[in-house]
Amino acid sequence: MATTITVSELNAQFGDYYISNSANMSRIHQQIMDSGNTEEAFTLEPTEDTVLRYSEAEVGSVLQPYQDTFTPKGAVNFVPAEIPLRQIKVDQKFNPNALASTWVGFLASNKLKREEWPFVRWFIESYLIPKIKEERELEVIYKGSYLAPTAGTPGAAKDSVNGIRKIINADITASNITPITTGAMSTDPVTFVGQIETFIKAIPEKYWATSMDLNMSRALALRFRNGMRTKYNTNYESTEDLSTLLDFPVVVKGRASMIGSAKIWMTPKINARRGLKWGNNANLFAIQGEDRNVKIWTDWFEGFGYVIPGLVFTNDQDLV
Amino acid sequence: MIDASVGEIKKDLDTVRKENDLLKKSASGLKSDLEAIQAENAQHKDQIAALKQENEVLSEMVLDTRTSDKYPEKLIEKPKLPKDATFTFDKKKFELLVPQMHIPDIGYRTAEEILVDPVAKEKLVAINSGAIKRLA
Questions:
Q1: What's the pLDDT at A59?
Q2: Enclosing domain of residue A245
Q3: Fewer Cβ within 10 Å of end Cβ, chain B: N or C?
Q4: What is the signed CA dihedral for B75, B76, B80, B83, rounded to 10 degrees?
């Protein structure tokens, strides 16, 4: 199915002709695209493989009281862990001819090769690149759930690759992650701060000194800051300080990817991995003319996951 | 002259008697100390014997690990959701959705433990936990 270019509303208002005037690309506006920041929670791992493989070495105790007899003690158990990468693509095909007799006619050209028209550059820079970033954030990185495509039919963005929610929930079901029951998140900011503090105190004490980002939706992160202002009377603290748990090196981070979710999760950044193969392709495109049509495409591999799922701390929400 | 000498000898004798008394007292104290030390020593001997036995058992365990064909599996088997993970609380039926969880103020619980723990069930219902689903 070809990419649709609809100019009927524009023509109805401005006429189906182009007059060389003040109209230019700066007069074309779009809604703000949200590229988010969830990627920063992961350690980027460029690779040529389509699966990242690790091993968690579970080790036993080694210390013992002295005696002259040699009494060896210790055990190492290598547990496999892998993060599969999925191939993601962008395919576009359109005939930009309809633009020539419109108010945005400056995007057309007298060049016979349609792929050389200014519209193609605008299409890639103003539409494809920001949209890829937005969909990766809003549809894939947290909410994604891989679904093999139906032959000949473009699949949904969220079907491209498994996102964090799917991965965490699968590990909870497999008893690789132990969720901490926060219950439903309170709408009262002060109570909510208490819930988060209880959550942090419930993680094993040996990790209390480990720096981690506590990821949650932007709405919950805002509620946390509001709660901190009220609970600790810190109206004049910076946003960063308001986002930091008292007595713990944990910073609350609002993620666009988690809009609408009550799940919270955290892990040391080194444990969260984002595998990327042909990663530059997300900003590079093949452009090809086909008769009067223009074809644009790109593809790359991407995958998210955790090396040691047991080091992921999360709550009991958004489990389905 | 002789009287003076006798007087000095008497004094010396008194002194010797006093010293003797002191030594006797000290000897009896030492005797009780010695008995206490001997008793403590016997206790230590018992402890050493027990520790030696324990150590031998542990050494055998380590040896088993080293000579085993494969490294030991995790000591604790991962918990699984029971086939029937439902429970009734306050005349309402709920289903447990996860095989294990940490409930603040209560602690770590497997699904099987929760199904027989009224306090844990009450807490999960009270906080509207996402780990349970209301069925009816």
A1: 86
A2: 178-273
A3: N
A4: 90
- Tell me if A315 is assigned to some domain: no
User: Which neighbouring-strand residues pair with A305?
Assistant: A273
Mean of pLDDT over chain A: 91
In a domain, A301, yes or no: no
Q: Is A237 helix (H, G, I), strand (E, B) or coil?
A: coil
* In the predicted structure, residue A145 carries a pLDDT above the cut 60: yes
Please give, rounded to a whole number of angstroms, the shortest distance from the CA of B12 to a CA of chain A: 57
ipTM of the predicted assembly exceeds 0.90: no
Compute the nearest-CA separation of B64 from chain A (Å). 11
The whole-model pTM stands at 0.77
Interface test with B, best of A68, A175, A314 (most B CBs within 10 A): A175
Phi, psi of A170 (to 5 degrees): -65, -40
Contacts of B100 in chain A (CB under 8 A): 175, 178
As for how many domains chain A has, the answer is 2
In a domain, A306, yes or no: no
Q: Which two tokens stand for residue B108?
A: 């770590």
Band (pLDDT 50/70/90 cuts) for residue B55 is low
